[in-house]
Design brief:
Blueprint: H1 3-11, H2 20-23, H3 32-38, H4 40-47, E1 61-64, E2 67-70, E3 75-76, H5 78-91, E4 95-100, E5 107-111, H6 112-129, E6 136-140, H7 145-157, E7 160-163, H8 170-179, E8 184-188, E9 190-193, E10 196-199, H9 201-207, E11 216-220, E12 234-236, H10 237-240, E13 253-254, E14 258-264, E15 272-277, H11 279-292, E16 301-304, H12 311-323, E17 327-331, H13 342-350, E18 354-357, H14 359-367, H15 371-374, E19 383-387, H16 393-403, E20 410-413, E21 447-450, E22 462-467, E23 477-478, H17 482-490, E24 497-505, E25 511-516, E26 520-523, E27 526-529, H18 530-538, E28 543-553, E29 557-566, H19 568-571, H20 577-591, E30 600-603, H21 617-624, H22 639-655
The structure holds adenosine-5'-monophosphate-propyl ester.
Adenosine-5'-monophosphate-propyl ester binds at residues 264, 310-312, 387-390, 412-417, 438, 499-501, 513, 515-516, 522, 527.
Length: 656
């Protein structure tokens, strides 16, 4: 969001006091910030009591920048914290998940007792295949209960899961499996999207020739579609898991035992394996889930409408909510599977009280019209959350008015795969909220906005978001690449973590997140790097060079615009550019994922380069966003920007 827009909204003085009915009963009391500020480390130590420890920690934080250890002499099991202890406390009959399939006829309620039974069988099944503590297990699945059961079964055994978003293509699977040397893969034959069966195992099959060390592939039968079968390597889930005992004694692990890896895009073509460990991570996801969503385990129904293939699903579908023992909706489909009112029907049927989703989804629902929200009784909602991208004030207001019926507080939560849990957010019941602002650091978290030299900016000024003290859920590093961890996050500003986001403090000192300041794009809340897409494009036989930028887009936040030069033979072949462009878009989808398909590809005779040969992406961004061009004098060929600009306008009129 541009700074001017923020001012425009602020001058309208739109801010909302905490709703009266929240104030008396909110989990967060007004004293919470002061209590945490007095001694943040001790405050987090208190929060760790939310967990069930086999050995209580006596230490809280050991900090040798940039490496933190939290609760290091404590021992616990993540799966026991998410499941067993709720059953032991007498809540086994509480629904853990109302699972809702893409197709209307698919749904099932899974209680905490059912979940325990399933997780134990799966843990026994994985052990029978040879999985043991410390092994890496790739999980590539649709949003079905077995995906969560698989994650918890790995955690139970101390194996490190690496969930790979089901939308990724075979090549992306190969990179992720090889980087962390996963020896096991759990997948499904396919899933459903808008009623149609889609294939997943076929991508695993395509990846396997390049992953010779994978010993076993465990396959859930979800759709019943025909699949290729490699004997000895492939195993049906129902053969391996269903016949196992539902008893499994969980071992306890050190608090710093690795829990999972989540690959995310950085500024290079290679995704980074972000490592999270157990005790600190669980403490912060459970604490933030409790306060930010104000959850009451006995009565709330939480729905985090996100995919478990991303960190939001890990922290706020799996670990946070399950630690807190709440009931959730787990939905497999797209927002319009079975009709554009599907979400509102799900909310009505299951009496969802807390909805958490991304601005892209909100903007899409907004486009489909507010009438749809009125067709169903959605008055069970009491709190709304947003995550993943900057939320524009219009979408925030629509969410508040039409989904929250002016009754529900909206919490805009800023965090990242690397932070593991929510870092900047209002707290319902005590915070004023402003449309488009994430407001302030969560208790016990220290956030700053600094200028180029690392000096804190004042109110009313913008700069870079930094985190100046360690926090429990912080990543413990990048798998196999300690140097990159230091370089990426800890070298830009002395002593602080550099998030890669621009931010601004408004006149009241409240925080507004302004988007990435590096080459990371945010497409519909999916994080992709410009280099990753460029790499895929130049991997096509016809492409000589490619430059990719993220241009602002009304629905998806940002969209990919690619500028491509072709090899002489192709450029001169007389082929229609349209078919080449379509071919390139499909090539990117096949190499990375359909989410990485460029919105526009401009074929140009050359790219704007400085005399040292560096591509000036800044100028391409100006072109892609139809802005006045910045300084072109340092280019080898200043005229090329004009050429590209006219190709872009030509392209825009082609599209109309
Ligand atoms: O740019 C920020 C944006 O998403 C990035 C993190 O992406 P990822 O690791 O995929 O995690 C997404 C889910 C936590 C951040 O660097 N971002 C996330 N939340 C917000 C946001 N930008 C603005 N406002 C937010 N609330």
């Amino acid at each position: 969001m541009a700074e001017g827009q923020i001012e425009a909204f602020l001058t309208e003085e739109r801010s909302f006091a905490p709703p009266a009915h929240f104030v008396a009963h909110a989990n967060a009391k007004p004293t919470i910030y002061d209590e945490a500020d007095r001694d943040p480390v001790a405050w987090w130590g208190e929060q760790a009591r939310r967990l069930t420890w086999d050995v209580e920690p006596t230490t809280t934080l050991e900090w040798t920048r940039p490496y933190a250890q939290w609760f290091s002499d404590g021992r616990l099991n993540a799966s026991v914290n998410c499941v067993d202890r709720h059953v032991a406390a007498g809540n086994g009959e509480r629904v853990a998940f109302h699972w809702v399939g893409d197709r209307e006829e698919d749904y099932v309620d899974v209680t905490y007792r059912d979940l325990l039974d399933r997780v134990c069988r799966a843990a026994n099944g994985l052990s029978s295949l040879g999985v043991k503590a410390g092994d890496r297990v790739a999980i590539y699945m649709p949003m079905i209960p077995e995906a969560i059961v698989s994650m918890l079964a790995c955690a139970r055994l101390g194996a490190i899961h690496s969930v790979i978003f089901g939308g990724f293509a075979a090549e992306a699977l190969v990179d992720r499996i090889l980087d962390s040397d996963c020896r096991y893969v759990i997948t499904a034959d396919g899933g459903y999207r808008r009623g149609e069966a889609s294939a997943l195992k076929v991508n695993v099959d395509a990846a396997m020739p390049k992953c010779p060390d994978v010993a076993a592939v465990l396959v859930v039968k979800r759709t019943g579609q025909a699949v290729e079968w490699t004997p000895h390597r492939d195993h049906w889930w129902h053969d391996v898991v269903d016949s196992q005992s539902s008893e499994h004694v969980a071992q306890s692990f050190e608090a710093e035992h690795p829990l999972y890896l989540m690959y995310t895009s950085g500024t290079t073509a290679r995704p980074k394996g972000i490592l999270h460990t157990t005790g600190g991570y669980l403490t912060q996801v459970a604490t933030t889930h409790y306060y930010v969503f104000d959850v009451k385990a006995e009565t709330d129904v939480c729905w985090t409408a996100a995919d478990i293939g991303w960190v939001t699903g890990h922290s706020y579908i799996v670990y946070g909510p399950l630690c807190n023992g709440v009931t959730q909706v787990l939905y497999e489909g797209l927002p319009d599977s079975g009709g554009r009112d599907r979400w509102w029907r799900i909310i009505e049927k299951y009496k969802v009280s807390i909805l958490y989703t991304a601005p892209t989804a909100i903007r899409t629902l907004m486009k489909w019209g507010d009438e749809l929200t009125r067709l169903h009784d959605i008055t069970s909602l009491r709190l709304l959350g947003s995550v993943g991208e900057p939320i524009n004030p219009e979408a925030w207001m629509w969410y508040r008015e039409h989904v929250g019926q002016n009754r529900c507080p909206v919490v805009d939560t800023w965090w990242q795969t690397e932070t593991g849990a929510i870092m900047v957010t209002p707290l319902p019941g005590i915070s004023v909220t402003k449309p488009g602002a994430a407001m302030r650091a969560f208790p016990g978290i220290t956030v700053d906005v600094v200028d180029n030299d690392g000096v804190s900016v004042g109110n009313g000024e913008g700069g870079y978001l930094t985190l100046s003290a360690p926090w429990p859920a912080m990543t413990r590093g990048i798998w196999g690449d300690a140097e990159r961890y230091v370089d990426t996050y800890w070298s830009r500003f002395d002593g602080s973590y550099f998030a890669g986001d621009g931010a601004k403090r408004d006149a009241d000192g409240d925080l507004w997140l302004l988007g990435r300041v590096d080459d990371v794009m945010n497409i519909s809340g999916h994080r992709l790097s410009t280099t990753e897409v460029e790499h895929a494009l130049v991997g096509h036989e016809g492409v000589a060079e490619a430059a990719v930028v993220g241009a602002s887009d009304d629905t998806t936040g940002q969209a990919i615009v690619a500028f491509v030069t072709l090899k002489f033979s192709v450029a001169d072949s007389g082929d229609d550019h349209r078919s080449i462009i379509e071919d390139l878009r499909n090539h990117v989808a096949r190499t990375i994922s359909p989410i990485a398909k460029p919105r526009q590809i401009i074929i140009t005779p050359d790219l704007p380069k400085t005399r040292s040969g560096k591509i000036m992406r800044r100028l391409l961004r100006d072109v892609a966003e139809h802005r006045a061009l910045g300084d072109v004098t340092t280019l080898t060929d200043p005229a090329i920007v004009g050429v590209i600009d006219s190709l872009m306008s030509q392209h825009a009129s082609d599209d109309e």
